[in-house]
Amino acid sequence: MIILTGHSFGATTASLTALWLLSRLQPAASPISVLCLTFGTPLLGNASLPRAILRERWGGSFCNVVSKLDVVPRLFFAPLASLAPQLHLLLQFWQPATASPSLEQLVGELRKQNFDEFFSNIKDCVKDAAQSEGGAKNSLFWPLGSYLFCSEKGAICLDNAMSVIKVMHLMLETVSPASSFEDHLKYGYYTGLLSSQFLKRINISGLSEPSYEAGAFLALQSSGIDPQDDNISKPAKDCLQMAWRMGRAPNLNNAHLAIRLSKITPCRAQLEWYKGPLR
Which of 55, 207, 227, 257 has an alpha carbon 20 to 30 Å from 121's alpha carbon atom? Predict the structure, then answer.
């Protein structure tokens, strides 16, 4: 297996490299598999790209880890012209901060540069994309592959693009600009937490035996969304249910086709047996 990984804008390079490798390995029917694991990646390509990747059955080769507050995976929902000046400054600060973290310096400079307005613009654009079911697909950028949304409480995984956009919006509703920019540099912290989350038992008092409600409660808690906050938890539950329905439909179709084929196969065998003596 070839594993490619990258953080921030380097993650888009990893994704493009993975696409190149997959396209080169496919004609040769190579046994080598490719996995692209990104952290805080910006969106890459419009809705046509993920459709083409699904058609080639490459969807499982892309996993994008996104922290609850990170602004970078949401950047390109906003018009590119409105991002250029602030984005240039952010890249200047993120590069040295990655090598030698100085979050206080970054946050202080962001406040001087009126980044609250920049953040609000991105937040509004993500909200518009989440609420416009059909129009969002005409966007220049669209989610690709599976998304693992992580927080201090755990993680949830989604592979339905519209659900990914809605969760991106809901997670960003209750955060400050400073927290959102800081979070882009904390993926080492979140990945360190993930392994311990598997060993932690979460108390869900008030819920009976395993049920859809229990699963939704745990998913919201893992994503860092307060299950008691109805303003956010209710649309988040609806989003999870939509993702579950849309993910379940192809599996049900495959099951129905398999059942129908199992009924036809004995008849075909009988026909072949009958045709044998006539040859």
Answer: 227
180 among known catalytic residues: no
Q: Which residue from 42, 25, 45 is spatially nearest to 34, judged by alpha carbons?
A: 25
Who wins on pLDDT, 11 or 26? 11
Looking up tokens 């906003």 gives: 78
The segment with the largest mean pLDDT, out of 14-18, 28-32, 52-56, is 14-18
pTM of the model: 0.73
Q: For residues 38 and 44, is the Cβ–Cβ distance under 8 A?
A: no
- 159: annotated active-site residue: no
Task: Quickly list DSSP for 25-77.
Answer: HTTTT-S--EEEEEESPPP-S-THHHHHHHHTT-GGGEEEEEESS-SGGGGGG
Which listed residue (61, 184, 222, 233) is catalytic?
184
In degrees and rounded to multiples of 5, residue 153 shows phi and psi of -95, -10
